[in-house]
Design a protein that fits this description.
Layout: H1 3-27, E1 43-44, E2 48-49, H2 57-76, H3 91-110, H4 118-121, H5 127-138, H6 140-143, H7 167-176, E3 178-182, H8 186-189, H9 191-205, H10 212-225, H11 227-230, H12 256-265, E4 267-271, H13 275-278, H14 280-293
Antiparallel strand pairs: 1-2, 3-4
GO cellular component, one term: plasma membrane
Family: Belongs to the CcoP / FixP family.
Binding site for heme c 2: 182, 226, 229-230
């Protein structure tokens, strides 16, 4: 807070507190020249008379006590301009203290899983509910509350893994994130027509019924630009994050238009690293829950 704003706030507080004290003192008793309690001359409904009586003394004293309390509060806590208060209290400090207590409780809860393999953690009946809660808080936004994914976000409950489905692979994915980049190949394969031919050939790899002539025209183009990542048979490469194109599981969709657009424009899929967000041990617990979904633990 700047010095000018601090002075402005201090002036407002002094005027308000001082005004309250003056008002209470001014109205707390009758003074010479004030009308008598029964001489206001205001009468309603024939027998309801307005008196000029001051407030009861106990009521006035309560107001004075409130003012004293407010002054004491401003001495102890921030509020009087830039004066921080004699106790040195801040909302940031209180938040940090509460957060530290919460972290201590969480650290004690998760300490038993520190450094354990995730397949071992997945066999612990107490770890699975913890992993599910972490997943709901940090992963469900993209992968869904049921972990079955959505367009562009993998299904984590089946046995198809873009980066590998071993315990270590899943843990690496959670801890460090993934970056899957497919560059646009429209110019390389001959524009929209060539991309369409490649798309038809890719559909044929997964057993879809396609135009044989277009598929045959797309194969040389596929062999020229796609096999480096997806392999000659379209089986993919988990080391590169290149998905399997020979099954019926599609990250973005297996229809002609979606595949053609992928060839033309490419894709850029990213999963952020979660270890900086949830810590190494909690990353292990949520990875164990994810691994369990495709290894008999999906109902837990």
């Amino acid at each position: 807070m700047s010095a000018g704003w601090s002075l402005y706030v201090i002036a407002l507080i002094v005027l308000n507190v001082g005004g309250c004290v003056w008002l209470l003192w001014r109205t707390s008793s009758l003074r010479p020249g004030d009308p008598a309690p029964d001489e206001t001359g205001h009468v309603w409904d024939g027998d309801i008379t307005e008196y000029n009586k001051p407030l009861p003394r106990w009521w006035i004293n309560l107001f004075y006590i409130t003012i004293v309390f407010s002054i004491g509060y401003l001495v102890l806590y921030p509020g009087f301009g830039s004066f921080v208060g004699t106790l040195g209290w801040t909302s940031v400090g209180e938040h940090d203290a509460d957060a530290a207590k919460a972290r201590a409780v969480l650290d004690a809860t998760f300490a038993r899983y520190e450094g354990l393999p995730i397949d071992e953690i997945a066999r612990d009946p107490e770890a699975i509910p913890l992993g599910r809660k972490i997943f709901a808080n940090t992963c469900a936004t993209c992968h869904g509350s049921d972990a079955k994914g959505a367009r562009g976000f993998p299904n984590l409950t089946d046995d198809d893994w873009q980066w590998g489905g071993s315990p270590d692979d899943i843990l690496t994915t959670v801890r460090h994130g993934r970056q899957a980049v497919m560059p646009p190949f429209g110019d390389v394969v001959g524009g929209e027509k060539g991309a369409g031919e490649v798309a038809v050939y890719v559909q044929s790899l997964s057993g879809q019924r396609v135009d044989a002539a277009m598929a045959a025209a797309g194969k040389p183009k596929f062999d020229m630009v796609c096999v480096a990542c997806h392999g000659a048979d379209g089986g993919g490469n988990p080391l590169l994050g290149a998905p399997n194109l020979s099954d019926d599981i599609w990250l973005y969709g297996g229809d002609f238009g979606t595949i053609r657009d992928a060839v033309l424009k490419g894709h850029n899929g990213a999963m952020p690293a979660h270890e900086p967000i949830i810590g190494e041990t909690r990353a292990r617990v949520v990875a164990a829950w994810v691994w369990a979904q495709s290894h008999g633990g999906g109902a837990q």
